[in-house]
Amino acid sequence: MLRAIHHGDVLQLHGSTRVSRLIDYAVSAYVVRGVMIDTSFPYLRGELDAWLAHNRVEGALVTHRHEDHAGNIALLAARGIPVGMATETLASVRSPRSIGMYRRVTWGSAAPLPQDPAPFAHSALALLPTPGHTSDHHVVWDAERETLFCGDLFIGVKVRIAHPREDVRGTVSSLRAMVALRPARVFDAHRGLLTNPVGSLTAKADWMEEMFGRIESHADRGWPAPRIRDAVLGREDLTGWASAGDYSRLNFVESVLASRAALGTVPGSTAGPPGE
Ligand SMILES: [Zn+2]
After folding, report:
1. Which residue has the higher pLDDT, 163 or 268?
2. Which of 45, 52, 127, 197 has the CA that lies 20 to 30 A from 214?
3. How far is the centre of ligand 1, averaged over its atoms, from the C-alpha of 57 (Å)?
């Protein structure tokens, strides 16, 4: 179900499915200055197609490769709408990797791109790299209107789960960089318009760093990752179980430990940074 919500100059296209509503989950694309930001998920292809038949967009910008953001690039390309995105995002949507059943049931799977969309850029909307959630993650920054479309950079303050290739330390660096821009408005892909934009982004970065400290102090005592998870973040919740480990608290702990090894703070470690 695609629902239009107006915020002055910004239109929110709020997308959900019967399954996603059961778990109180939704994802939004936005339209500002005649540009669509993100493309919603594959199950909404028909509704988005109908919306595009009645509403003109000049182009689209895509924040990252996940199917609930990049899921309808093929539709836009077929309609002749140019799409701006990182090279890495385009490479990923050309041949999407298979996704877990949990995500397939919720959002649907994106088909490989039959044709690349024409490239797109907008002078007032900058795609800024903000890696962490994924290595190709970008936000869209409208400096003139002090408005940030933050994709999946935020999602919530105390997000205790991560996917296996997530770099949680990268997320904190990206959050701090966005706080430095002092955005007056932040539109999150899952939470919509944040009521306290700078405060929310800062609270998330602070909370995550507090968790990193606790995780590291237990690791210093030689605790294994599952024990650290139970002590710091708690046992897996429904999402961890339902996604068969695709999104889990253990991944959060392991991302902290892997990036710590990469930073060289663990003597003798030769581990590399988490791959994507
Ligand atoms: Zn994502």
Report:
1. 163
2. 197
3. 23
- Please list the residue range(s) of the chain that carry CATH number 3.60.15.10: 2-122
Mutual orientation of helices 168-179 and 197-220 as an angle, nearest 10°? 150
**Ligand 1 mean position, distance from CA 220 (Å):** 31
Which residues does 113 contact at the CB level (< 8 Å), separation at least 6? 73, 74, 77, 93, 94
Mean of pLDDT values over 247-262: 92
Write out the residues surrounding ion ligand 1, Cβ under 5 A.
Answer: 66, 152
Token representation of residue 269? 């470690």
For ligand 1, the distance from its centroid to the CA atom of residue 149, given in whole angstroms, is: 13
Structure tokens at 61: 């910008």
Interatomic CA distance for residues 165 and 175, integer angstroms = 18
* Short-list 83, 61, 76, CA closest to 110: 76
| Ligand 1 centroid distance, CA of 246 (Å) | 12
d(CA 35, CA 203): 30
Burial of 40 (0-12, 13-18, 19+ CB in 10 A): buried
User: How remote is the CA of residue 69 from the centroid of ligand 1, in Å?
Assistant: 7
In tens, the pLDDT along 185-205 reads 999 999 999 999 999 999 999
Reported as a single tens digit per residue, the pLDDT across 112-144 is 888 899 999 999 999 999 999 999 999 999 999
Where does 2-122 sit in CATH, by number? 3.60.15.10
